[in-house]
Amino acid sequence: MKPFLNLFSSFTYVKKNQFILFFILTIFSCILSFSQVGIGTTVPTEDLDVNGTVRIRSLSNATGDHLQVVAKDDGTLVTAISDPSAPGSRFIGVLSADLALNSNGFRNIILGSEIFDYLNEHNTANGRYTPASSGIYSISMQFDLADYTSTKHDVDVLIGLWDVTNDRWISRRTYAHRSSSHFSGRNEGYSNINYVTLTAGNTYSFRIFPTYNNSVSKSLVLKRTNGGGTGTSVSTTFAISKVN
What we know:
single chain; 7-stranded antiparallel beta sheet; 5-stranded antiparallel beta sheet; 1 helix; membrane
């Protein structure tokens, strides 16, 4: 009977150790499940508490600019470069030279200079913009009109974003411009922001369309800059940002 008792004792010892190990692992697992992790702090107050700078290498970019970081619906952090569907600024373009509006009819506004174009969606040669992702976009237009000399008749100026793919306006405003009797040919600044739906792969361009009275000189100019004795600044810029 002695060998049997030794075997029973060994079996009991093993079972007891297994139970103790299982108990320790269970407690440790519970601690991990409800613990808070601190980096740079010994008293974290959230699941992850970082006292310092966080670097996410997958969000790095070669533009040299600081980009907006947003959270997708599943919590993933992205930028416009890492995920083209993310909201954020896309493009700011500047008129590279004055544009003479010396006849009735539309002109394409060629923004030959760019402040930035993060996804290379804009073509500086022809002024076309092709979004990489569909969504709601903010279209901002700031511009100066000048050199129109008539003080009796307005020139109606239609300006906006043209859908080249579908041959129609998707954002447009009309302004009545007239020279002042005190300041012939004066500069006048205008601005507009509109929200529109853009479709990935479609092509868009900014256009301007003056309509003159038959009796006036067609002398209106879309100006690149506004200058005077106290300084000069760029006055015609267009911007596109993705909102959603």
